[in-house]
Amino acid sequence: MTDFTEQDLAGSTFRRVDLSGSTFDGVRLAGADLRDADLSDLRVRAAWLKGVRMTGVEVPDMEIHGELGRLVVNGVDVVPLVEAELDRRMPERALMRPTDAAGFREAFATLDRLWAGTVERARALPPERLHEQVDGEWSFTETLRHLGFAHACWVGGIVLADPSPWHPLDLPWDEAPTVDGVPWDRDVRPSLDEVLGVRAQRRATAQAVLDGLTDGGSADEGLAREVSSATPFMTEASGLTVAQCLKVVLNEEWEHRLYAERDLAELPG
């Protein structure tokens, strides 16, 4: 089949063209106009969909997993409805939106409890299963490694301004830029205990921050203290606060545990 690697096809017109089964990786479709298109079984990952408008569509079966800001379906913004239903199903979810120091400490403690159950479930599986991917998503071990990177990036690299907070087992997100000195070993197969050991260290670092946390109303103290990245990641972000960084970690921990639970259920014992 034709390979269009590193080509500029901006403004091209595709009429009555069969692109079934094609792979689009690192492709810009900003401003594209799709009409009378068959998108059945389409898989979209790590996509930015701001300003997307779909009209005259038929959606007999569709799933969306991600961060939703505004999603209007037939004139109704369904995001508040979805958020309320998720909070109803998982009451602990509301704790992941803390507004004071005590709330942050409670949120992290809640995650500790929930993750303990997930890890216990993982231990019941043969060790090799924890390196298996389900539907192309990260394995259980890779998920824990990525959370180690998230802690290193947002707590170590930003809140604590450590220029090199990394551990060899850290795993950046798939689309992250390659940076010298930042580990990115896709092939290593550490044991669960090895990964949990790193995780315990990272959790202790976060707890030290939480223990000294104050609500802080000014920009130079507590939750409101402004911070910037000491690593190559998130250097373009301005006006970050300690609270914002901790909320990123909370969100990563919450969402990836749900992904892990979903995928563990699919792995054979």
TrEMBL record:
Q: Where is the DinB-like domain?
A: 111-259
Per its record, how is this protein called by name?
DinB family protein
InterPro entries listed in its UniProt record: 5peptide_repeat, DinB-like, DinB/YfiT-like
A Pfam family (short name) is: Pentapeptide
